[in-house]
Design brief:
With 447 residues, this protein is of the alpha/beta class. Among the domains are: 134 residues, 3-Layer(aba) Sandwich (Rossmann fold); 163 residues, P-loop containing nucleotide triphosphate hydrolases (Rossmann fold). The chain is 45% helix and 14% strand. The protein has 19 helices and 16 strands. Strands 2-1-3-6-7 form a 5-stranded parallel beta sheet, sandwiched between helices. It has a 5-stranded parallel beta sheet with strand order 9-12-15-8-16. A hairpin with a 2-residue loop joins strand 4 and strand 5. It is globular and about 75 Å long. The structure holds adenosine-5'-triphosphate and magnesium ion (MG). The site of magnesium ion has 3 residues, from helix 8.
């Protein structure tokens, strides 16, 4: 495919980090790799840079002086949907990395970042981005194929509860880590139950702060608050006869919880600014990835509401707890995306089974999509799965023997990382003067 060859034009990269020495290091390194590099030291300057130019890739450090790097991802995704985004996080921030991926980052690297890894990750991400434009795999994977949950015992127990939920009408509370399929299971229960001819109404609690959630759920009368210019029906109205799915219920504010408990018990409510009592016969399903009993102990969630919600509790196990389901799930997603070879090579499956899957099924789908894009119709190998999980990688990629220069470069980088970018400390740790450190950084020659 012609578009895969090295482009004649330089690719524009924006590096965002508030540590000057790291910026210099990355910038110099990437320039030598043939990229046109721009740097930004804060969210504010990154926004200016992004407004002035379209970048092929953006590398973002999560910790910036004026906010969190993750805040930028949505903005970048809406202004340059095809840009590759690589997020850099601390070692103990796997959940943050997963969150970044969910916001649309293509890849993440954990600190300390090795320059060679940066180069590989950037190249892979740029490649995926360019392929994504031409391939339809991602659309195919996003289509709603038949669900497959796996056959492990732990998942079997969750599905048994889900079947009970299908046959009963009481409130269901679905818990589990991010990406395990809580939303998917909620819809499945609705679609297989007696209310499937009526609406499945989904509300994500974190999306509505304060009065907004109340207004969304109950509706409001014209003039009940400043922006209420019309009468508006609430989602409870829409869920009448059907299912109300409250996602991330752990985020519901305490001030709303007491009133909502009463609504669940009486199935009646009032629109904001109205006295008329309305009735809605909805079936309630809630989901959360928080530990609600712990939230109760911390005083952030009402105990009586929790009791009411978990009449039918369903805990979806993480993929780590059901490694035996990994091969079947992988085969399922491959079949769904029309992978043309009969099966995966055993070493690839082994590789996937030894991974910890912090992002669960969502991450699995993403990884498979990337791998299929990168393999361009050839048989999948472990190489097509590298990138996403640098830290937990079960197999290190073979590294070429190090040259003296590389060793020096590694030592400097490590010292800078350990000192949090502080050149004085880094120089001390390396046993050289600050001036020497700057000079060495300047003459750095990556292979
Ligand atoms: N059994 C399944 N079969 C096919 N796809 C699935 C299955 N379970 C989950 N998925 C897919 O995995 C992704 C994550 O699912 P879902 O959004 O339901 O997870 P979640 O537990 O609600 O995550 P979060 O806590 O982040 O909201 C979706 O793309 C969904 O389509
Ligand atoms: Mg969800």
């Amino acid at each position: 495919m012609r578009f895969l060859h090295a482009p004649a034009m330089k690719q524009d990269i924006l590096v965002i980090d508030d540590e000057q020495p790291i910026l210099e290091l990355f910038s110099k390194f990437l320039s030598r790799q043939g990229y046109a590099v721009e740097v930004a030291e804060s969210l504010a300057s990154a926004r200016t840079a992004l407004a002035n130019r379209e970048f092929h890739a953006v590398i973002i450090d999560q910790h910036l002086s004026d906010g969190k790097g993750i805040e930028l991802i949505d903005e970048i995704r809406s202004s340059s949907p095809t840009a590759a985004i690589v997020m850099i996080t601390g070692q103990a921030e796997v959940s943050l990395a997963v969150e970044a991926m969910q916001h649309g980052a293509d890849n993440f690297l954990t600190k300390p970042v090795r320059l060679n890894d940066l180069a590989v990750f950037l190249k892979k991400s740029l490649e995926v981005v360019s392929l994504r434009r031409f391939e339809k795999i991602s659309a195919r994977l996003k289509q709603r194929g038949p669900l497959f949950f796996g056959t492990s015992k732990v998942m079997g127990e969750a599905l048994e509860m889900a079947r009970v939920a299908v046959e009963n009408d009481g409130p269901v509370l679905i818990t589990g880590e991010t990406g395990v399929g809580k939303g998917v299971l909620a819809r499945w229960i609705h679609e297989n139950g007696g209310r499937n001819r009526a609406a499945f109404v989904e509300v994500s609690c974190p999306g509505f702060r304060g009065e907004l959630l109340r207004s969304e759920l109950y509706g409001h009368a014209k003039g009940s608050f400043t922006s209420a210019v019309h009468d508006q029906a609430g989602l409870l109205d829409a869920a009448d006869g059907g299912t109300l799915f409250l996602d991330e219920i752990g985020d519901m504010e305490l001030s709303i919880q007491a009133q909502f408990l009463k609504v669940i018990e009486d199935k009646t409510y009032r629109r904001m600014g109205e006295t008329k009592l309305r009735r809605s016969d909805f079936r309630l399903i809630c989901a959360t990835n928080r530990d609600l009993p712990a939230e109760v102990s911390a005083g952030r969630f009402r105990k009586d509401l929790l009791f009411r919600l978990q009449v039918l509790p369903i805990r979806i196990p993480s993929l780590r707890e059901r490694k035996e389901d990994v091969p079947e799930l992988v085969r399922h997603f491959l079949a769904e995306s029309n992978y043309q070879y009969r099966d995966l090579a055993p070493d690839v499956m082994q590789y996937l089974m030894s991974y910890s899957w912090p992002g669960n099924i969502r991450e699995m789908k993403n990884l498979i999509e990337r791998a299929l894009l990168l393999s361009r119709g050839t048989k999948l190998t472990t190489q097509h799965f590298t990138g996403l999980w640098q830290q937990q990688s079960p197999m290190e990629e073979p590294r070429p023997e190090k040259k003296l220069n590389d060793l020096e470069q590694d030592a400097i980088q490590k010292a800078l990382e350990q000192s949090g970018g502080n050149v004085v400390k880094a120089a001390k740790a390396l046993g050289i003067s600050q001036a020497t450190l700057y000079r060495r950084m300047k003459s750095l020659r990556p292979q």
